[in-house]
Amino acid sequence: QVQLVESGGGLVQAGGSLRLSCAASGGTFSMYVMGWFRQAPGKEREFVAAINRSGRTYMADSVKGRFTSSRDNAKNTVYLQMDSLKPEDTAVYYCAVSKRGFYTNYEGDYDYWGQGTQVTVSS
Question: DSSP label at 29?
């Protein structure tokens, strides 16, 4: 069983930045692919980013060039750096663990999920 705790969400003006963190416990963090998803009010959850064991990332087109993801295996933590934020980035952001060994944008490939953290971008 893997537990995930996200932090770093909040309210920011358009054009601003936030860094989300996701701390993992209860598993072998360095072996997992980590993913970020988000869900806006009234919309389905959507893929944002994934990072594999070696730190290679796969970003959704909607955030490419604005968001980056990184991981610190020594701290069992994955990060989502969000720059040039837009009001349409407003959502609850979730991190997730995939034990499948390859990065994927399909939420069904992820085995454990955090509780989410709210990001609100004002115009």
Answer: G
